[in-house]
Design a protein that fits this description.
Homodimer. It catalyses: L-aspartate + 2-oxoglutarate = oxaloacetate + L-glutamate. One of its GO terms (molecular function) is pyridoxal phosphate binding. The protein contains 24 helices and 23 strands. By secondary structure, the chain is an alpha/beta fold. The chain folds into 3 domains: about 15-50 and about 325-405, Aspartate Aminotransferase, domain 1; about 55-305, Type I PLP-dependent aspartate aminotransferase-like (Major domain) (Aspartate Aminotransferase, domain 2, 3-Layer(aba) Sandwich); about 425-680, no CATH class. It starts with 15 loop residues before the first helix and ends in a 5-residue tail after the last helix.
Length: about 675
């Protein structure tokens, strides 16, 4: 039989939000909770068909004048005009001056895609800015439309857990000519953090100064405050600036018409005379995508919006949904406070709309999934999925997750993949290695100060006159060491990259990088970890830590110290070659950016337990030397010596001043040579 033409087709990674729903539906656990999908639920956790929608559908079913003929290419006229009226208000000048027109689309996503196609093909835009973080589909929509440059502007501030207005404006001011920006009109997804009216004014000013074309994504009108007018404030404000503007509307959430795909693209122009040309190009663009929009959902929305009584009923039902979501926000935060969950959870209440950006790390999310609480790996949850019956269970699971894995993911980095997309191992390695001095090696450069006792076999390199004053080359030397520690193979996640070029890193090479033979349990664990790859070279958020050995850690260093505690100054410049063994949790790809960014902003040190095998001892050794010598070594012959190590990690991420971030090693040093310990002389 001839080869199938589809033989080389590979599976794409699952769409995370729908994968969570699938796992939820398959789960038989009685406590299961779905916090992934962005759809409203009742207090019983059930979908809600708005009563006004049922009323409109019944009226439509009894209307014998309706048929199933094609709609105009631009969509149902009654729907389009009513959608614009709800968005801007019937007396807004863009309506009274005939400077706006709507185009029916397949939901909010369809409105975004229509905008992207028009901007790329007709207006020749090629650069789009999206918030960091943003809704996971924004990048994909514009990339598929042909945009070659998809940039990010700062949005989430991990320190204040609010809007990073200064960073946002700085990034937009750096935008090249012919750039456009997607702004979340209300209820930012996924953070739930919106700009204030004063902040919106500053954002609009920057966009006008830089001539950045604005596309407002308005998917949650009514869901944030419960008021249609209040939630449309940003859209109306921008339209008042007399600029050209797009607004993508969705009626999925506020009408509960998720599967009817009802959206509208509002096009605002400074010159109403250009609307016929704009309309013609929009219709040609629609023609080659979906050709003609669907009728049923648009007819429901039009029926409600154009009937005064129905419209008032609808506004009341929006308030019902919004109020329940606000109530569940407070109940979740109150339960976390009652449990004494580590951290400040006020941001859950301060955020608005359907979603909350909890700050849970991927490891904490993994724990939540093990408890059958289904949510996105970014830490985003749908508050609509909480009910009076499950909120205590969810809070309990969050409390357990935070206590088990205490680091919060409060600093999503601009370099992270789109929401729900796993990070390729090779991409992770490349990002980290490109930031080091030598791009071919996994080098961690560390400017350090070690305050303690060091046993240096390199004392022979010191001037002979100074050596004559030393009791022994095996004497203790009180030092402050300042220099750059470098290691070509310090392993932080179980995959040493010693002498391995970036382009050579692959899934298959992971096992070969682990010290040990085929029977080594670390190799078996790594083989098991490989099974978590969702596609070749792509690792899920689960990352295990392994013990990895380096026998040649080169340490260019400069010593200024007193020898033998006798106040005799001496200097040593050279390179120590130290056999070392690191064992601990150091920094993992799932927490590196978050941990270090959080530490930098809080000006706090990270604490990393380690074991170190080599020729370094601490001042505390003097008072416990005999105790150590008389004690039993562990099964590997290690004798532990307490040590504190303070320094700065550089080359992976830096603080705002370009300095390495402070790091504290608080753990033990270990040596296997007990005879060497007993033979030491000096203080």
């Amino acid at each position: 039989m001839a080869d199938c033409i589809f033989s080389d087709v590979e599976s794409a990674p699952p769409i995370e939000v729908f994968q969570m729903s699938k796992l939820y539906n398959e789960s038989t656990n009685p406590n299961k909770v779905n916090l992934g999908v962005g759809a409203y639920r009742t207090d019983e956790g059930k979908p809600w068909v708005l009563p006004v929608v049922s009323t409109a559908e019944l009226q439509m079913a009894n209307d014998r004048t309706l048929n199933h003929e094609y709609l105009p290419v631009a969509g149902l006229p009654d729907f389009r005009t009513a959608a614009l009226r709800v968005l801007f208000g019937s007396d807004h000048k863009v309506i009274t001056e005939n400077r706006v027109e709507g185009f029916q689309a397949l939901g909010g996503t369809g409105a975004l895609r229509l905008a992207a196609e028009f901007l790329k093909k007709v207006l020749k835009f090629d650069i789009v800015y999206v918030s960091s973080p943003t809704w996971g589909n924004h990048k994909g929509v514009f990339k598929t439309a042909g945009f070659s440059e998809i940039k990010e502007y700062r949005y989430w501030d991990s320190e204040t857990r609010g809007l990073n207005l200064a960073g946002m404006c700085e990034d937009l001011r750096a935008a090249p000519p012919k750039s456009m920006v997607i702004l979340h009109a209300v209820a930012h997804n996924p953070t739930g953090v919106d700009a204030t009216k004063e902040q919106w004014a500053e954002i609009a000013k920057v966009c006008q100064e830089k001539q950045i074309f604005v596309l407002l994504d308005c998917a949650y009108q009514g869901f944030a405050s419960g008021s249609l007018d209040e939630d449309a404030w940003a859209c109306r404000f921008f339209a008042n600036q007399d600029i050209d503007l797009f607004v993508a509307q969705s009626f999925s959430k506020n009408f509960g018409l998720y599967n009817e795909r009802i959206g509208n693209l509002a096009v605002v122009t400074k010159d109403p005379k250009k609307l016929p040309e704009i309309r013609s190009q929009m219709e040609i663009t629609i023609r080659v995508m979906w050709s003609n929009p669907p009728n049923h959902g648009a007819r429901i929305v039009a029926t409600v919006l154009n009937n005064k009584a129905y419209f008032e009923d609808w506004k009341g039902q929006i308030m019902t949904m919004s109020s329940r979501i606000k109530k569940m926000r407070h109940e979740l935060a109150d339960n976390l406070k009652r449990l004494g969950t580590p951290g400040n959870w006020d941001h859950i209440v301060k955020q608005i709309g359907m979603f909350s950006f909890t700050g849970l790390s991927p490891k904490q999310v993994e724990y939540m999934l093990s408890k059958h609480v289904f949510m996105l790996s970014s830490g985003r949850i749908s508050i609509a999925g909480l009910t009076p019956k499950n909120v205590q269970y969810v809070a309990k699971c969050m409390d357990e997750a935070v206590r088990a894995y205490p680091k919060l993911n409060l600093a999503p980095s601009a370099g992270e993949p789109a929401e729900g997309q796993p990070l390729s191992f090779v991409e992770f390695a490349r990002r980290k290695l490109e930031k080091t001095e030598h791009p071919k090696y996994n080098v961690i450069k560390t400017n350090v100060i070690i305050d303690g006792m060091i046993l240096s076999e390199s004392l022979g390199q010191i001037d002979e006159e100074e050596l004559e004053k030393v009791e022994s080359v095996q004497s203790f030397v009180k030092v402050q060491m300042e220099g750059s520690l470098s290691s070509s193979s310090i392993s932080t996640t179980g995959y040493g990259a010693q002498n391995v070029q970036v382009e050579e890193l692959s899934e298959d090479k992971l096992v070969n990088m682990v010290v040990g033979d085929d029977e080594d349990p670390r190799v078996k664990e790594l083989e098991e970890m490989k099974s978590n790859f969702t596609e070749p070279g792509t690792l899920r958020s689960t990352v295990k830590t392994f013990k990895t050995q380096s026998q040649q850690t080169l340490t260019p260093a400069k010593f200024d110290h007193d020898i033998n505690l006798k106040g005799i100054p001496a200097r040593f410049e050279g390179t120590m070659v130290t056999p070392v063994y690191f064992e601990g949790r150091m920094l993992t790809p799932e927490s590196l950016d978050q941990m270090m960014a959080e530490a930098a902003k809080k000006k706090e040190a990270l604490t990393i337990p380690v074991s170190f095998e080599g020729g370094m001892l601490t001042a505390a050794f003097r008072s416990m030397k005999e105790k150590i010598i008389d004690s039993e070594a562990d099964g590997d012959g290690n004798v532990a010596v307490p040590v504190k190590f303070s320094g700065r990690l550089q080359g992976i991420t830096e603080d705002s001043e370009g300095q390495g971030l402070p790091v504290t090693f608080d753990g033990t040093m270990a040596t296997k040579d007990r005879k060497k310990i007993s033979s030491l002389t000096g203080v």
